[in-house]
Specification:
It contains 13 helices and no strands. With about 270 residues, it is mainly α. The protein folds into two domains: about 110 residues, Orthogonal Bundle (Endonuclease Iii, domain 2); about 100 residues, Hypothetical protein, domain 2 (Endonuclease III, domain 1), CATH 1.10.340.30.
Length: about 270
Amino acid sequence: MAKKSTRKKLPSKKPSVTKALAKAAKGKAAKTKPVAKQKKADAEAFDGSAKRWTAAQIDEAFRRFQAQEPEPKGELKHSNPFTLLVAVVLSAQATDAGVNKATPALFALADTPEKMVALGEDRIRDLIKTIGLFRMKAKNVALLAKKLVDEFGGEVPKTREELVTLPGAGRKTANVVLNMAFGQPTMAVDTHIFRIGNRTGLAPGKDVLAVELELEKVIPAKYMQHAHHWLILHGRYICIARKPHCDRCIIADLCQWPGKTASSVIPAKAGIQ
């Protein structure tokens, strides 16, 4: 009997859903090699030795992501650009699930910069104390709310240059806010996307900025709006750090990671090796 997938079932009547999607959903994509070989493959990949993808392979991979999940959504709960900004700042070195447990009570009291300033650092700290590094994060949230009120008229700015001046907000935070709140085609590279970029050969890079810039260069513009969500979800649920689920991977035949067996999910096509 086929193993049940933890992801959503794929629509059966969509013409855009390929055999690759159907086989991956049934656990019939690639298989991982023994753990020792996986570790060796990862070490080589993060050393920059992974084979890079062709333009045709990249286009095909994102075509499949789109077919599987046309409108991917972020998992942090929020109601407006400000609560999104706060949630992303709180998510540093914490899980989205953990942040989502703490923020409903916080946002019920303060869903605007003005309300957050009025709430104060001490109360913010009490409300988010289940989140890692909550003392520092409470201070940053209080300070960024005050800066938004004092310097930006209580509005979340729409440029990366301005966003990164806010306490607790780095480049990744800015990219997430620009993408999710303002529809800009940015690439927010977290640990999952950094791993995928190097492990698969999609966009190798020594640091997150290198991977970000490479992804922006190689991903077709038509896919950029949702690209970072597809990659984050793929890294979070399929291409995980330990024991990746290559058997359920919809891009297993395109992935260049040598830690898995060769996949024959779909017949070879012109330009796709």
